[in-house]
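Risk register update: the risk of archive-format incompatibility is retired. Evidence:
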Amino acid sequence: MDILQNIYAGAVIAAGGMAQRMQGINKQSLMIQGIPVLVRSIQRMAEVKQIRQIVVVARPELFSQLKQWKTEYSLPDFEIVAGGESRQQSVLNGIKALPDQTEYFVIHDGARPFADRELILRCLQSAVEHGAATAAVKTKDTIKRVSPEGIIEETPNREFLYLTQTPQIFKASLYHKAVEQAEKEGLDFTDDCQLIEHIGHRVWVSQGDYRNIKITTPEDIAMAQAIAQWTEQK
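Archived output:
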């Protein structure tokens, strides 16, 4: 991956969500094999030398905990900023805390603790080659488009259906252009790729990993524990 040698990338870890589907469980602080979910996500970003700075976007009540984890788990230095009212605004808060010389923004969900170094580098390489990239995996299940009344209307060909993950990585100038356009139109996207797609730039799909799950509901906890146990026994 010679084209990556001198890349200056910055990571924004989005960890400011309300976790409404976790039945009161704080997923960022959830322990997976003795290590908090968010700590694992920070560690994964720190394994990639092209990522020169990490910014964690979190709710203010998590700030003191993050500072404690930094010492407890010997984490590399990272910035902590407060989130905004939406995903788009929160990520932008994180991006504003990155150095001006940052060439690529690596945007990652704090609740995805299993994005390994190889996955991140694959996605970064795609972003360097194409300007925008996301980790993604093919859907294993048949997808149905359903009407508001609950009736199946269409069965798309699953050969071309992917589940997007993070990291999602964008050239800095491209991301700023997309944000400027979205703000001009009063648009607020829940997915970072949508922001880029809106200005007509294509986003490249980089091979993700089925283990790169996002902990979203209580059922995901058992799966995360199993993935961690299996991965760390290898």
